[in-house]
Amino acid sequence: MSQSQVASDESPQYVLSVFNNDLRHFTNLLRGIGFQKRALFDITEGGMVVTVEESRTLLAFAFIRHDMFDEFIYDADLAAELDPDPQNDDEPILPKRTIFEVNLQMMIDCLNVFGTASASASSASTKKLKYAGWDKPDDERQGEGSGLRGRGGANASRNGRIDQYMGNGTGTALKMTYGGRGQPLVLHLMEDMNGPNAVCELTTYEPEPALDLPFDSEAMVMKMILKSSWLQEALTELHPSCEKMTIIGNPPPPPGRGPTLTAPPRLRLKATGTFGTTEMDYPNDKEVLESCECDTHVSFTYRTSHIARVTRALPHSSKTSVRIDEEGLLSLQLIIPSPKKKGTKTMDAFTEFRCLPIED
Protein backbone atom coordinates (compact mmCIF):
# COMPACT_ATOMS: atom_id res chain seq x y z
CA MET A 1 0.00 0.00 0.00
CA SER A 2 1.39 3.40 -0.95
CA GLN A 3 2.08 6.13 1.57
CA SER A 4 -0.58 8.30 -0.07
CA GLN A 5 -3.17 5.55 0.42
CA VAL A 6 -2.21 5.21 4.08
CA ALA A 7 -2.50 8.96 4.58
CA SER A 8 -5.88 8.95 2.86
CA ASP A 9 -7.14 6.09 5.03
CA GLU A 10 -6.00 7.85 8.19
CA SER A 11 -7.34 11.30 7.27
CA PRO A 12 -9.98 12.32 9.81
CA GLN A 13 -13.65 12.45 8.92
CA TYR A 14 -15.84 15.14 10.39
CA VAL A 15 -19.57 15.38 10.87
CA LEU A 16 -19.12 19.15 10.79
CA SER A 17 -16.35 21.24 9.26
CA VAL A 18 -16.72 25.00 8.85
CA PHE A 19 -14.35 27.81 8.03
CA ASN A 20 -14.60 31.57 8.35
CA ASN A 21 -11.90 34.02 7.35
CA ASP A 22 -13.05 36.43 10.09
CA LEU A 23 -14.64 35.03 13.24
CA ARG A 24 -15.97 38.30 14.66
CA HIS A 25 -19.52 38.04 13.30
CA PHE A 26 -19.87 34.45 14.49
CA THR A 27 -18.51 35.39 17.91
CA ASN A 28 -20.87 38.36 18.21
CA LEU A 29 -23.86 36.09 17.55
CA LEU A 30 -22.75 33.71 20.29
CA ARG A 31 -21.90 36.54 22.67
CA GLY A 32 -25.38 38.00 22.18
CA ILE A 33 -26.92 34.95 23.88
CA GLY A 34 -23.97 34.10 26.11
CA PHE A 35 -25.64 34.73 29.45
CA GLN A 36 -25.66 31.04 30.44
CA LYS A 37 -22.82 28.56 30.82
CA ARG A 38 -24.22 25.78 28.63
CA ALA A 39 -25.60 26.08 25.10
CA LEU A 40 -27.26 23.56 22.82
CA PHE A 41 -26.02 23.34 19.21
CA ASP A 42 -28.53 21.99 16.66
CA ILE A 43 -26.77 21.45 13.32
CA THR A 44 -28.31 20.64 9.93
CA GLU A 45 -27.29 21.13 6.31
CA GLY A 46 -28.90 24.57 6.44
CA GLY A 47 -26.73 25.85 9.27
CA MET A 48 -26.94 25.82 13.04
CA VAL A 49 -29.20 27.05 15.82
CA VAL A 50 -27.59 27.78 19.18
CA THR A 51 -29.95 27.85 22.17
CA VAL A 52 -29.63 28.83 25.82
CA GLU A 53 -32.26 28.64 28.56
CA GLU A 54 -32.84 30.42 31.85
CA SER A 55 -35.16 29.50 34.72
CA ARG A 56 -37.52 27.51 32.48
CA THR A 57 -38.90 30.89 31.47
CA LEU A 58 -36.53 32.39 28.90
CA LEU A 59 -35.11 30.94 25.69
CA ALA A 60 -32.54 32.66 23.47
CA PHE A 61 -31.64 31.50 19.98
CA ALA A 62 -28.91 32.44 17.52
CA PHE A 63 -29.91 31.40 13.99
CA ILE A 64 -26.76 31.02 11.90
CA ARG A 65 -27.20 30.15 8.22
CA HIS A 66 -24.67 27.99 6.40
CA ASP A 67 -23.84 30.79 3.95
CA MET A 68 -22.58 32.97 6.79
CA PHE A 69 -19.43 30.85 6.69
CA ASP A 70 -16.89 30.81 3.88
CA GLU A 71 -17.16 27.02 4.00
CA PHE A 72 -19.81 24.88 5.68
CA ILE A 73 -19.74 21.09 5.35
CA TYR A 74 -22.19 18.91 7.25
CA ASP A 75 -21.94 15.18 6.55
CA ALA A 76 -25.44 13.93 7.31
CA ASP A 77 -24.60 10.38 6.21
CA LEU A 78 -21.65 10.17 8.59
CA ALA A 79 -23.78 11.67 11.36
CA ALA A 80 -26.44 9.00 10.79
CA GLU A 81 -23.80 6.27 10.76
CA LEU A 82 -22.21 7.41 14.02
CA ASP A 83 -25.47 8.23 15.80
CA PRO A 84 -28.36 6.26 14.24
CA ASP A 85 -31.83 7.59 14.99
CA PRO A 86 -34.40 4.99 13.86
CA GLN A 87 -37.86 6.30 13.04
CA ASN A 88 -41.19 4.54 12.87
CA ASP A 89 -42.53 3.79 9.40
CA ASP A 90 -45.58 5.92 10.13
CA GLU A 91 -43.48 8.97 11.00
CA PRO A 92 -42.29 11.39 8.31
CA ILE A 93 -38.60 11.26 7.48
CA LEU A 94 -37.02 14.31 9.06
CA PRO A 95 -33.79 15.99 7.93
CA LYS A 96 -30.80 14.58 9.80
CA ARG A 97 -29.52 16.81 12.57
CA THR A 98 -26.73 16.67 15.09
CA ILE A 99 -27.33 17.99 18.61
CA PHE A 100 -24.87 18.48 21.44
CA GLU A 101 -24.10 20.88 24.28
CA VAL A 102 -20.91 22.80 25.01
CA ASN A 103 -19.69 25.34 27.54
CA LEU A 104 -20.64 28.48 25.62
CA GLN A 105 -18.82 30.94 27.85
CA MET A 106 -15.60 28.99 27.49
CA MET A 107 -16.12 28.78 23.73
CA ILE A 108 -16.44 32.56 23.48
CA ASP A 109 -13.25 32.96 25.53
CA CYS A 110 -11.44 30.60 23.15
CA LEU A 111 -12.63 32.52 20.10
CA ASN A 112 -11.13 35.64 21.66
CA VAL A 113 -7.81 33.98 22.54
CA PHE A 114 -5.95 36.55 20.41
CA GLY A 115 -8.10 39.44 21.62
CA THR A 116 -9.49 39.99 18.12
CA ALA A 117 -13.03 38.64 18.44
CA SER A 118 -14.58 41.88 19.66
CA ALA A 119 -16.15 44.23 17.18
CA SER A 120 -18.17 47.41 17.29
CA ALA A 121 -21.85 47.33 16.46
CA SER A 122 -22.09 46.27 12.83
CA SER A 123 -24.53 48.72 11.38
CA ALA A 124 -26.82 49.53 14.26
CA SER A 125 -27.67 53.18 14.52
CA THR A 126 -26.21 55.11 17.43
CA LYS A 127 -28.49 58.05 16.81
CA LYS A 128 -30.12 59.42 19.95
CA LEU A 129 -33.85 59.03 20.17
CA LYS A 130 -35.53 62.39 20.40
CA TYR A 131 -38.33 60.81 22.44
CA ALA A 132 -35.87 59.08 24.78
CA GLY A 133 -36.10 59.20 28.53
CA TRP A 134 -38.24 57.39 31.02
CA ASP A 135 -41.12 59.47 32.38
CA LYS A 136 -40.88 59.43 36.16
CA PRO A 137 -43.36 60.77 38.71
CA ASP A 138 -40.70 62.95 40.31
CA ASP A 139 -39.33 64.16 36.94
CA GLU A 140 -35.90 62.91 37.90
CA ARG A 141 -33.57 60.92 35.65
CA GLN A 142 -31.85 57.91 37.07
CA GLY A 143 -29.47 57.15 35.13
CA GLU A 144 -22.12 39.67 34.47
CA GLY A 145 -15.99 22.57 35.09
CA SER A 146 -15.17 24.04 31.49
CA GLY A 147 -14.04 20.82 29.78
CA LEU A 148 -11.40 22.75 27.82
CA ARG A 149 -8.08 21.59 26.52
CA GLY A 150 -6.03 24.12 24.58
CA ARG A 151 -2.80 24.20 22.64
CA GLY A 152 -1.11 27.04 20.83
CA GLY A 153 2.03 28.13 19.09
CA ALA A 154 3.39 29.08 15.73
CA ASN A 155 3.00 25.51 14.50
CA ALA A 156 0.31 23.96 16.68
CA SER A 157 -0.35 20.36 15.78
CA ARG A 158 -3.59 19.13 14.23
CA ASN A 159 -4.46 22.55 12.89
CA GLY A 160 -6.30 20.99 9.98
CA ARG A 161 -4.09 22.93 7.54
CA ILE A 162 -6.05 26.08 8.28
CA ASP A 163 -3.39 28.07 6.41
CA GLN A 164 -4.78 26.81 3.09
CA TYR A 165 -7.94 28.82 3.74
CA MET A 166 -6.24 32.05 4.73
CA GLY A 167 -7.07 35.10 2.65
CA ASN A 168 -6.07 38.73 2.87
CA GLY A 169 -8.50 39.59 5.65
CA THR A 170 -7.41 41.38 8.79
CA GLY A 171 -9.47 39.29 11.22
CA THR A 172 -8.69 36.02 12.94
CA ALA A 173 -9.62 32.97 10.87
CA LEU A 174 -11.57 30.08 12.37
CA LYS A 175 -11.86 26.46 11.32
CA MET A 176 -14.26 24.49 13.51
CA THR A 177 -14.61 20.71 13.35
CA TYR A 178 -16.71 18.08 15.12
CA GLY A 179 -16.09 14.36 14.70
CA GLY A 180 -19.38 13.06 16.02
CA ARG A 181 -21.03 11.92 19.23
CA GLY A 182 -18.62 11.93 22.16
CA GLN A 183 -15.95 13.84 20.23
CA PRO A 184 -14.78 17.36 21.17
CA LEU A 185 -15.64 20.50 19.26
CA VAL A 186 -12.28 21.67 17.94
CA LEU A 187 -11.51 25.33 17.23
CA HIS A 188 -8.51 26.12 15.03
CA LEU A 189 -7.63 29.83 15.13
CA MET A 190 -5.01 31.70 13.12
CA GLU A 191 -4.29 35.40 12.77
CA ASP A 192 -2.33 35.07 9.51
CA MET A 193 -0.27 32.53 7.60
CA ASN A 194 2.97 33.47 9.32
CA GLY A 195 1.58 34.35 12.73
CA PRO A 196 0.61 32.33 15.79
CA ASN A 197 -2.24 29.87 15.77
CA ALA A 198 -4.12 28.01 18.47
CA VAL A 199 -6.14 24.83 18.76
CA CYS A 200 -8.80 24.55 21.47
CA GLU A 201 -10.83 21.43 22.20
CA LEU A 202 -14.17 21.86 23.92
CA THR A 203 -15.82 18.86 25.54
CA THR A 204 -19.28 18.15 24.12
CA TYR A 205 -22.12 16.86 26.29
CA GLU A 206 -25.31 14.91 25.73
CA PRO A 207 -28.19 17.39 25.40
CA GLU A 208 -30.59 17.65 28.31
CA PRO A 209 -34.37 17.92 27.80
CA ALA A 210 -34.98 21.39 26.43
CA LEU A 211 -37.70 23.89 27.23
CA ASP A 212 -40.15 24.27 24.36
CA LEU A 213 -41.78 27.67 23.87
CA PRO A 214 -43.37 27.65 20.41
CA PHE A 215 -44.63 31.03 19.26
CA ASP A 216 -47.98 30.80 17.47
CA SER A 217 -48.05 33.46 14.75
CA GLU A 218 -51.74 32.76 14.16
CA ALA A 219 -52.44 33.76 17.78
CA MET A 220 -50.28 36.90 17.67
CA VAL A 221 -52.00 39.95 19.19
CA MET A 222 -49.19 42.50 18.81
CA LYS A 223 -46.21 43.09 16.53
CA MET A 224 -44.06 46.21 16.57
CA ILE A 225 -40.83 46.77 14.62
CA LEU A 226 -38.45 49.47 15.83
CA LYS A 227 -34.81 50.42 15.61
CA SER A 228 -32.76 48.42 18.07
CA SER A 229 -31.02 51.55 19.33
CA TRP A 230 -34.36 52.86 20.66
CA LEU A 231 -34.91 49.74 22.74
CA GLN A 232 -31.29 49.59 23.84
CA GLU A 233 -31.42 53.14 25.16
CA ALA A 234 -34.60 52.44 27.11
CA LEU A 235 -33.22 49.30 28.75
CA THR A 236 -29.85 50.80 29.66
CA GLU A 237 -31.57 53.73 31.40
CA LEU A 238 -33.57 51.44 33.69
CA HIS A 239 -32.86 51.74 37.40
CA PRO A 240 -31.46 48.50 38.87
CA SER A 241 -34.34 48.34 41.37
CA CYS A 242 -36.92 47.76 38.62
CA GLU A 243 -38.13 44.17 38.98
CA LYS A 244 -41.04 44.01 36.55
CA MET A 245 -41.67 45.37 33.08
CA THR A 246 -45.07 45.65 31.46
CA ILE A 247 -45.29 45.86 27.68
CA ILE A 248 -48.41 47.67 26.54
CA GLY A 249 -49.74 47.90 23.00
CA ASN A 250 -52.65 50.07 21.92
CA PRO A 251 -54.78 50.00 18.76
CA PRO A 252 -54.72 52.86 16.24
CA PRO A 253 -57.33 55.65 16.35
CA PRO A 254 -60.74 54.83 14.84
CA PRO A 255 -61.01 55.23 11.04
CA GLY A 256 -61.34 58.85 10.02
CA ARG A 257 -59.78 60.16 13.22
CA GLY A 258 -56.16 61.14 13.52
CA PRO A 259 -54.04 60.79 16.68
CA THR A 260 -54.60 63.36 19.42
CA LEU A 261 -52.39 64.62 22.22
CA THR A 262 -54.37 62.56 24.71
CA ALA A 263 -54.34 59.37 22.65
CA PRO A 264 -52.36 56.52 24.22
CA PRO A 265 -49.03 55.62 22.58
CA ARG A 266 -48.93 52.62 20.26
CA LEU A 267 -46.21 51.07 22.43
CA ARG A 268 -45.41 51.68 26.09
CA LEU A 269 -42.83 50.09 28.37
CA LYS A 270 -43.66 50.42 32.08
CA ALA A 271 -41.05 49.38 34.64
CA THR A 272 -41.96 48.90 38.29
CA GLY A 273 -39.51 48.78 41.16
CA THR A 274 -38.76 49.77 44.73
CA PHE A 275 -38.86 53.50 43.98
CA GLY A 276 -42.04 53.55 41.93
CA THR A 277 -42.98 53.27 38.28
CA THR A 278 -41.29 54.64 35.18
CA GLU A 279 -42.61 54.68 31.62
CA MET A 280 -41.24 54.95 28.11
CA ASP A 281 -43.68 55.81 25.31
CA TYR A 282 -43.13 55.12 21.62
CA PRO A 283 -45.40 57.24 19.39
CA ASN A 284 -46.71 56.15 16.02
CA ASP A 285 -43.83 57.82 14.19
CA LYS A 286 -42.08 56.07 11.29
CA GLU A 287 -38.77 57.33 12.66
CA VAL A 288 -39.42 55.30 15.80
CA LEU A 289 -41.84 52.49 14.96
CA GLU A 290 -41.33 51.05 11.51
CA SER A 291 -44.57 49.10 11.70
CA CYS A 292 -47.39 48.61 14.21
CA GLU A 293 -49.82 45.70 14.30
CA CYS A 294 -52.10 45.83 17.31
CA ASP A 295 -55.89 45.80 16.97
CA THR A 296 -56.79 45.77 20.66
CA HIS A 297 -55.33 46.80 23.99
CA VAL A 298 -52.53 44.40 25.01
CA SER A 299 -50.73 44.32 28.36
CA PHE A 300 -48.42 41.64 29.79
CA THR A 301 -45.80 41.79 32.53
CA TYR A 302 -42.35 40.14 32.58
CA ARG A 303 -39.31 39.97 34.82
CA THR A 304 -37.02 42.88 33.99
CA SER A 305 -34.00 40.65 34.54
CA HIS A 306 -35.21 38.40 31.71
CA ILE A 307 -35.92 41.28 29.32
CA ALA A 308 -32.51 42.77 30.09
CA ARG A 309 -30.79 39.67 28.67
CA VAL A 310 -31.41 41.09 25.22
CA THR A 311 -28.97 43.96 25.86
CA ARG A 312 -26.03 41.69 24.93
CA ALA A 313 -27.31 41.37 21.37
CA LEU A 314 -28.86 44.81 20.84
CA PRO A 315 -25.59 46.70 20.10
CA HIS A 316 -24.98 44.47 17.06
CA SER A 317 -28.53 44.57 15.69
CA SER A 318 -30.28 47.05 13.43
CA LYS A 319 -33.97 46.31 14.02
CA THR A 320 -36.05 44.57 16.67
CA SER A 321 -39.43 42.93 16.21
CA VAL A 322 -41.53 42.85 19.40
CA ARG A 323 -44.25 40.19 19.19
CA ILE A 324 -46.72 38.91 21.78
CA ASP A 325 -49.26 36.10 21.39
CA GLU A 326 -52.60 35.78 23.13
CA GLU A 327 -51.04 33.79 25.99
CA GLY A 328 -48.52 36.56 26.66
CA LEU A 329 -45.48 34.76 25.24
CA LEU A 330 -43.03 37.48 24.23
CA SER A 331 -40.77 37.15 21.20
CA LEU A 332 -37.99 39.65 20.56
CA GLN A 333 -36.37 39.07 17.16
CA LEU A 334 -33.18 41.01 16.43
CA ILE A 335 -31.74 41.38 12.93
CA ILE A 336 -27.93 41.12 13.00
CA PRO A 337 -26.48 42.48 9.72
CA SER A 338 -24.02 40.06 8.13
CA PRO A 339 -20.71 41.20 6.61
CA LYS A 340 -20.96 41.69 2.86
CA LYS A 341 -19.06 39.24 0.68
CA LYS A 342 -18.01 39.95 -2.88
CA GLY A 343 -19.95 38.05 -5.50
CA THR A 344 -22.44 36.57 -3.04
CA LYS A 345 -25.69 37.66 -1.46
CA THR A 346 -25.56 36.91 2.24
CA MET A 347 -28.75 37.03 4.27
CA ASP A 348 -28.65 38.68 7.67
CA ALA A 349 -28.52 36.53 10.77
CA PHE A 350 -30.87 37.05 13.68
CA THR A 351 -31.29 36.18 17.31
CA GLU A 352 -34.55 35.62 19.13
CA PHE A 353 -35.55 35.81 22.79
CA ARG A 354 -38.78 34.18 23.99
CA CYS A 355 -40.05 34.89 27.47
CA LEU A 356 -43.06 33.77 29.47
CA PRO A 357 -45.11 36.43 31.28
CA ILE A 358 -45.54 36.69 35.03
CA GLU A 359 -48.77 35.06 36.08
CA ASP A 360 -51.10 37.27 38.09
UniProtKB/TrEMBL annotation:
Where located? Answer: Nucleus
Organism superkingdom? Eukaryota
In this chain, the stretch annotated as Disordered covers 133-162
Principal location = nucleus
Which Pfam families does its entry note? Rad1 (PF02144)
**GO CC annotations, alphabetized:** checkpoint clamp complex
Q: A Gene Ontology biological process annotation?
A: DNA repair
The UniProt entry, under SUPFAM superfamilies, shows:
DNA clamp
Q: What is this protein called?
A: Rad1-domain-containing protein
Q: Which organism is it from?
A: Cerrena zonata
**Highest classification ranks of the organism:** Eukaryota, Fungi, Dikarya, Basidiomycota, Agaricomycotina
